[in-house]
UniProtKB/TrEMBL annotation:
Pathway: Carbohydrate metabolism; tricarboxylic acid cycle
Signal peptide: none
Catalytic activity: oxaloacetate + acetyl-CoA + H2O = citrate + CoA + H(+)
Alphabetical UniProt keywords: Transferase, Tricarboxylic acid cycle
Protein name: Citrate synthase
Recorded GO CC terms: cytosol
Residues annotated as the enzyme's active site: H261, D315
Gene coding for it: gltA
GO biological process, one term: carbohydrate metabolic process
């Protein structure tokens, strides 16, 4: 028997190189192409970050305009897909619906098997555009409403909110949602990105890789944490109950949702950006109850758990931001996918350029020196 150590959850294992995203969890640093996430959120757009991730550099004005035009042109999905979404059960999990729709989209694409860089890039850009249309359609159908067709005269974030709610959002709402998409667009080798890479490493098609990623993101340990934060706030009910509720959690050594991260041992820098925006939205819209509870929970966490390097992560405040934008809890994870599709596509394109089939080993711990026993003798 070998004594090779096991890296549970592949923690600490380096299997490839990437020029896209850098994280220093000890210092709370996150950069894309060397640029801090705070600068992306404050100065950029989801469209620009998507281009930068796919191309490994910032675009000039003409390149960004062309890329934005490409996204707007390919927001539409085949009507056959929309009609099929209407047939999905109303009780459907939205991530199940998204996973099925992406796979269906692949069957409708006559060039889905194009394994050239140009072919994969084309599919990737189309999927970045089409995810918004698909997710909005799923949400509308689940509410018994007719899907709203995309508009070419709106930016990516504004168009999604328009398709979701049936009316054009305010500039402030569109900017807030755009910023939220930027913060979730890529995060190095997370579970869903790794899953997409594992699939493409077999030289499967782009749609299969992204379908795999959606299935991975569906898991509550990955994509559902912000929904769990909102469930926690609903359980607490009011600011006056926070101390007793969180105190009880700490005494029982139970997890506080939205606190702690596998990578970050300091503040998740994305949570700091979202906290400030959540405060502004809460104040302007008079929805301060959730924010006040989160603010108090953060204070307790910093007092009681900072010594253990447990701090609020991006999910701590993202749920209340989505809620204030009128997005239902069950669609928080699909919104995550709406942002992360850019990171998935970029990572797949980067990895497959120097592809090697992923084939890890497992330490065998079963019986040895056994022999087959006829069924009559068992």
């Amino acid at each position: 028997m070998t004594t090779t150590p096991i890296a549970r959850g592949l923690e600490g294992v380096v299997f490839t190189e990437s020029k896209l995203t850098f994280i220093d969890g000890e210092k709370g640093i996150l950069t894309h192409l060397g640029i801090p996430i705070q600068e992306w959120a404050e100065s950029s757009s989801f469209e620009e970050l998507s281009y930068a991730l796919l191309h490994g550099r910032l675009p000039n004005a003409k390149e960004l305009d062309h890329f934005d035009h490409d996204l707007r042109q390919h927001r539409y999905v085949p009507q056959e897909l929309i009609e099929n979404i209407k047939l999905y059960p109303r009780r459907m999990n939205p991530m199940q619906a998204l996973r099925t729709a992406v796979s269906h989209l692949g069957m409708l694409d006559p060039h889905s098997e194009d394994d050239t860089h140009e072919g994969r890039y084309r599919i990737g850009v189309h999927l970045i555009a089409q995810f918004a249309t698909i997710i909005a359609a799923i949400a509308r159908v689940k509410e018994g409403k007719e899907p709203v067709a995309p508009r070419k005269d709106l930016g990516h974030a504004a168009n999604f909110l328009y398709m979701l709610k049936g009316h054009v959002p305010t500039e402030e709402e569109a900017r807030l949602f755009d910023m939220a998409l930027i913060l979730h667009a890529d995060h190095s080798m997370n579970a869903s990105t790794f899953t997409a890479i594992a699939t493409i490493s077999t030289l499967s098609d782009m749609y299969s890789a992204i379908t795999s990623a959606v299935g991975s993101l569906k898991g509550p340990l990955h994509g559902g944490a912000n929904e769990a934060v909102m469930d926690m706030l609903d359980d607490i009910g009011s600011l006056s109950h926070v101390d007793d509720y969180i105190g009880g959690k700490l005494e029982r050594k139970e997890k506080i949702m939205g606190v702690g991260h596998r990578v970050y041992k300091y503040f998740d820098p994305r949570s700091r950006v979202l906290r400030d925006y959540a405060a502004l939205v809460a104040e302007k819209q008079g929805k301060s109850n959730y924010y006040q509870m989160l603010e108090r929970i953060e204070g307790i966490v910093l007092e009681k758990l900072s010594a253990k390097k447990l701090y609020p992560n991006v999910d701590f405040y993202s749920g209340v931001v989505y809620s204030d934008l009128g997005i239902k809890k069950e669609f928080f994870t699909p919104i995550f996918a709406l942002a992360r599709i850019s990171g998935w596509v970029a990572s797949v394109l980067e990895y497959v350029e120097h592809n090697r089939l992923l084939r890890p080993n497992a330490l065998y711990t079963g019986p040895v020196d056994q022999h087959y026993v006829e069924i009559e003798k068992r």
